[in-house]
Amino acid sequence: MENKEGQYVKRTQKDYTLAFKLQVVSEVENGEIGLKAAQRKYGIQGDRTIRTWIEKHGQYDKSYKLRSMKKSPEQELMALRQQLKLLEKKNRRLEKELNQADKKALFFDMMIDIAEEEFEIPIRKKFTRTVDKFQKEEKISLSSLCRLVGINRQKYYRSKAKVRSNQGLAEKVVALVQEVRNKMPRLGGRKLYHLLQAELKALGVGRDKFFTILRANNLLVRPRKNYHTTTNSFHHYRKHKNKIADLKIYRPEQVWVSDITYIGTRENPMYLALVTDAYSKQIMGYDVSNSLSSIGSIRALKQAAKRRQYPNEELIHHSDRGIQYCSNDYQQLLKKLGISCSMTESYDPYANAVAERINGILKQEFIADFFHLGLDAMKKIVAQSIDIYNQARPHWSCQFMPPAEMHQQQELEYKSYKKKTTLAQDHLKPELLN
Predict the structure, then answer these.
(1) Residues with Cβ < 8 Å from 95, sequence gap 6 or more?
(2) pTM for this structure?
């Protein structure tokens, strides 16, 4: 790997987060990508680095795999005869195709003409890779091939130089993207462009070209869907009123939102309790446990209280009507901390949208719910993810600042393209919380 000055920088295992290692292991074991391809795609140093990760974190035990048996002479003869039959069949097909080669060439030539005319795509200009591949496979000279297809050699050389230039530029952009995604493996293209804007500008890469490079190298992130109910509102505890329905949120530690989200697998369920500042989107407290009891939520709230930076300001705690938040222990802790309680009054998806969105970001971009891990390993991944999220991940609604930086601001308005919404909707719609 090279830094901005072009100097080689050696990586250590600490440069890769556990979530990143597990993502690479999963892709290799599922057959989505090979070892060498994964090494090139993610810029991983060391020939045995990925193998070491697979041995340590992989799903499959290769000690049970049987060694391949050597074929007997009879089996080899049968295989050769079968191959001979296939070759004879292929030869007959090729002879038939050869007899129609001229007509086929004329047909495809006419088809290209029609496609270029109807779709206005200069197909014949995309010829360099075809020329290279054809020249290599058919052992034909460049001059002969250019004469055969009616292409000027100088035009070929100019096009080839442009391709090399584009590939060199793409390599630099992909290296920048990999540097960010070593810590945030599933950060989306829009956030990447914001974080790398200065470097991309120096390379002469705008937004459209940046997304073209991401798309060409399969680096665009597709969101995952996850459905799992963690809210039980059918209980006898008191349910509090919604105090933030028409509240304008204008400062940090004015409103905290809490929620519990499901992580892990069906065989090994785990739950993540979060307390998030509605203004800055900073995660103030969290807890990972294998139970839906109120204990995890209480630990998250205690952690958040210790991290308050504006302890003298009035604070509202907003959540759904889950039994964890309505329980006597949780309500007594809120009262002891001097925090007012607010709860959703319906199943409106916007009612606790900030908390729901932060859950989604952690699970989509940091893949905290993707692997079959034990509780200790999951706690490590979540701790790393939340630290990176708070300190580095930009938010559109925070003027593209990371939550920790936004938490230091006072009365900074949210960016919004929505003009005809209520105050609560304007702050809490999911599309404005990224």
Answers:
(1) none
(2) 0.56
